[in-house]
Amino acid sequence: MDDISGLLPRSKNDIDGARAVVQAGYPAVAPILGELTVWLKDYNWPIAHLIAPFLSSIGTPMVSHIWHVLKSDDHVWKYWIIELLLLGLPQDTALEFRPELERLCYTPSDAERREELDQQARQVLAHFGWV
């Protein structure tokens, strides 16, 4: 496929589209990684269950896309990115996020605490033996 953006799922129920993305694999989908993270805004969406493990398996190339989400104001999206992607990263790649995870764990804003980002961050920190 010449235009990889044609692989982007069309809706939260586009299981065939999500499967096509996974089947195309990385690095073929590298140009659309950012758009694919959008489908992790809500893990209740059916395609998120296919997209999340795939994106998590990519590792280091996901770093800039994860940072994009962590720097956003969408705390629910952050919650899912922390749970679904950070826990699956290799430790050396996850180390990039340690300072932000520590900030979320120990000094979250009220809004971050309401969305349980402090608990999610603690879970990742514990997973890697950093707490």
From TrEMBL:
Gene3D superfamilies: Domain of unknown function DUF5071. Residues 7-125 form the DUF5071 domain. InterPro entries: Cthe_2751_sf, DUF5071. This is DUF5071 domain-containing protein. It comes from the Bacteria. It comes from Bradyrhizobium aeschynomenes.
